[in-house]
Design goal:
The structure is a single chain. This protein folds into 4 domains: about 260 residues, TIM Barrel (Alpha-Beta Barrel), CATH 3.20.20; about 150 residues, no CATH class; about 130 residues, no CATH class; about 100 residues, Golgi alpha-mannosidase II (Immunoglobulin-like, Sandwich). By secondary structure, the protein is an alpha/beta fold. A hairpin with a 2-residue loop joins strand 23 and strand 24. The chain is built from 22 helices and 26 strands. The strands form 7 sheets. It has an 8-stranded parallel β-sheet with strand order 16-15-14-8-5-4-18-17. It has a 6-stranded antiparallel β-sheet with strand order 19-20-21-26-23-24. Helix 3 crosses helix 6 and helix 15 packs parallel to helix 16.
Length: about 675
């Protein structure tokens, strides 16, 4: 009998072999010292230092990183999701997760020349913008930080037309099935981007890190690859109307998502009527014969349509009435229904071409009667394609709340049929939608912790009332790719410590570190939430990246400015969460204090006579004297044998005896973790 040998992790091992064969011994490739210091106990390759950067032979460095990772190989097939590998039947693994969010092209971007300015491609042929190979090299750094989920913003093929900045937005997806070639590293010449991403997933899984990706089923780039075969999956406007295209203004309504009762007002509005007149049929419907010729022309199909038909895909806008933000020039909505919204049809003439308006965008609330089934089938197959090709572990569904419920069900059920423990994150920013998200099949919600952390009263209510009662966990984030950086907020020098402590240790929390948070990056990646146009001017004017946003421009994190203190602080918090993990399955209780004035956020967990209490002073100016009544807090008589108080300054035992009252002082914007009959 001939036994066929099975080769596992071929892609990762091929990368290692290729890199090893190219070693030159020349240390000409600059890297942040943090990557090396936090990834190796001792780097074994050639290394030189200059101006805060480490200079290595890139082939030796990356091969040694992979060699270190591959040491964890136990013969399992790490090209599968970790859930399938472990035989997990549900996504409960999310409850013990610590997540790092990355935009790879910016997260691992660096000036590898070691001199001059950052360039996407430099004189030595190095790709200074981020690549999958460099993400592999960051994995030990993340593992050391305590991360077990790497969440990446869209990595699919993106468009380079109608760009908002220097490069295309990752959300302007030109082809959702293909990976963007910019993530292929030239050092791996001859190895395609798909193989490089497979290697990244395998390397992450070897370290116990799951891969979660962002998917965008509601929109596409305006020059999407899908246009050539399916022009009727898109909306179209006359080119001469493009300059004036924007969300119509309806003065009788506030800034809000419309309700059915608002349709009379919306469709009687003269600006809305003019807006409807901008739309036209798709090119295949206007002139089928001409379309057959145009779609076979050389060059961009969208450009050819514009020249030959005088029409173009419109930019996107939100589902809010009177939205003041500009249109999304690089993205357009997909036509999910073949007819108009059912509730709106009585307001529209029978010959009205397919159009985009608030009700069309919010198709979950205003569905049509004729689903675009071929498009739905295509969209619901995207995540399964990544599951089968790459073995990813989870997904965030962008604008899932706006999708028709039936389409959302298709997307979720197909993913779950392949992997019942596949993790799905709902883009629900309102905490009250936790029940809705769970009923729809999601395992956690984004939430709005990034909003409340800078608003003391709301933060207090969030900790005291909201998070303990959630039916699904939330992403505990001080900042996200769409928000201001926590360190750049008002009182950021205090909140950067207080906010993650209260959030990461909270009930139902999935601690989240936004790429750059651990090095105190100042500039936001995007201005989408809780920000203004001035948000992109946080950096000093003489900084190369002043005025730039990582979503739209070439951007490299300021790795050389980091001193490691915030990295070590966040690492300590995540480690503390792990050490207290057995108590989280115990009884949740609010702390019983001598007084409560709405500034001392608190919660506790208990198992028999052991417990921990978290206290946070949300008053950024005044000190608080607090007395914790232990027995009342635990809800039963507790004999206090020892008390350990932990802060970011260290830990100490309190000389408590003969009493169940623990006296404490809380400095402004400070926190304490109080361990009762429990030590870490």
């Amino acid at each position: 009998m001939i036994v066929e040998e099975v080769y596992l992790m071929v892609e990762l091992k091929n990368l290692q072999a290729f890199l090893k064969s190219k070693i030159t011994g020349k240390t000409l490739y600059a890297l942040p010292k943090q990557w090396i210091e936090h990834s190796f106990s001792q780097y074994g390759g050639k290394l030189s230092m200059k101006d805060g950067s480490c200079f290595v032979d890139p082939y030796e460095y990356f091969s040694l990183v992979i060699e270190q990772i591959v040491q964890n190989d136990d013969g399992a097939d790490y090209s599968k999701s970790l859930a399938r590998l472990k035989g997990e039947k549900d996504a409960s693994w999310l409850m013990s997760s610590k997540m790092y969010g990355a935009l790879p092209r910016a997260t691992v971007a660096y000036n590898h020349k070691g001199f001059g300015s950052f360039e996407p491609e430099d004189i030595f042929g190095y790709r200074e913008s981020g690549t999958f190979l460099k993400m592999i090299s960051l994995l030990p750094y993340l593992k050391n930080l305590g991360i077990n989920i790497l969440y990446m913003l869209p990595i699919s093929k993106m468009s380079n037309v109608f760009k908002k900045g220097e490069i295309g937005s990752p959300y302007a997806v030109k082809n959702p099935i293909e990976l963007d070639d910019s993530y292929a590293d030239p050092l791996l010449d001859g190895i395609d981007v798909q193989e490089q991403f497979k290697a990244l997933v395998q390397a992450a899984h070897l370290l116990g890190i799951r891969i979660v990706l962002d998917f965008i089923p509601r929109t596409a780039s305006r020059d999407s690859d899908l246009i050539k075969e399916h022009p009727d999956w898109f909306y179209w406007i006359k080119i001469e109307e493009l300059a004036s295209y924007k969300p119509p203004y309806v003065p009788e309504l506030p800034f809000k998502i419309p309700d059915p009762d608002d349709l009379d007002i919306i469709y009687s509005n003269e600006e809305v009527k003019k807006h409807l007149g901008k739309f036209t049929l798709s090119p295949d419907k206007i002139d089928p014969e001409k379309w057959e010729k145009v779609k076979h022309m050389d060059g961009s199909v969208l450009s050819n349509i514009a020249k030959e038909f005088g029409i173009i895909t419109p930019p996107g806008f939100s589902d809010w009435v009177n939205d003041p933000q500009p249109t999304w020039d690089d993205a357009t909505f997909l036509r999910l229904y073949l007819d108009h919204p059912a509730l709106s049809q009585r307001y529209i003439s029978k010959d009205q071409p397919p159009y985009v308006l608030f009700d069309v965008v919010k198709s979950s609330k205003f569905p049509g009667n004729e689903p675009n089934i071929p498009l739905w089938e295509y969209l619901s197959d995207i995540i399964p394609t990544y599951q089968k090709r790459y073995g990813i572990d989870g997904a965030r569904i962008d604008m899932g709340h706006a999708l028709p419920s039936e389409l959302q069900d298709m997307i979720i059920s197909k993913a779950k049929s392949i992997d019942p423990a596949f993790g799905l994150i709902a883009e629900e920013l309102e905490m009250k939608n936790d029940v809705k998200a769970k009923n729809e099949g999601y395992e956690c919600i984004l939430g709005n912790s990034w909003y409340v952390v800078v608003r003391s009263r709301e933060f207090y209510e969030f900790i005291e009332e909201t998070v303990p009662n959630l039916v699904v966990p939330f992403i505990a984030s001080c900042e996200t790719p769409d928000t201001p950086r926590i360190v750049a907020r008002e009182n950021g020098s205090k909140l950067k410590y207080l906010a993650p402590a209260l959030l990461y240790l909270a009930p139902n929390a999935i601690p989240y570190i936004n790429s750059g948070q651990e090095i105190e990056e100042l500039q936001p990646m995007n201005l989408g939430l809780d920000n203004t146009i001035y948000g992109k001017t946080i950096l000093p004017p003489d900084d190369q990246f002043y005025g730039k946003l990582a979503f739209f421009d070439y951007y490299a994190m300021h790795w050389n400015n980091a001193d490691g203190s915030m990295y070590n602080y966040l690492k300590w918090l995540l480690k503390l969460r792990n050490e207290l993990s057995d108590l989280y399955s115990g009884e949740f209780r609010y702390a019983y204090l001598n007084y409560q004035d709405g500034f001392t956020a608190n919660y506790s967990f208990w198992k028999e006579e052991k417990g921990f209490i978290v206290l946070g002073n949300l008053d950024l100016v005044h000190e608080r004297y607090i007395e914790v009544f232990v027995s009342e807090t635990a809800g039963r008589s507790i004999e206090v044998e020892n008390v350990v108080v932990i802060s970011r300054y260290g830990k100490k035992k309190l000389p408590i005896s003969g009493t169940n009252v623990i006296p404490l002082n809380l400095l402004p914007a400070d926190f304490l973790i109080v361990l009762v009959n429990y030590e870490v």
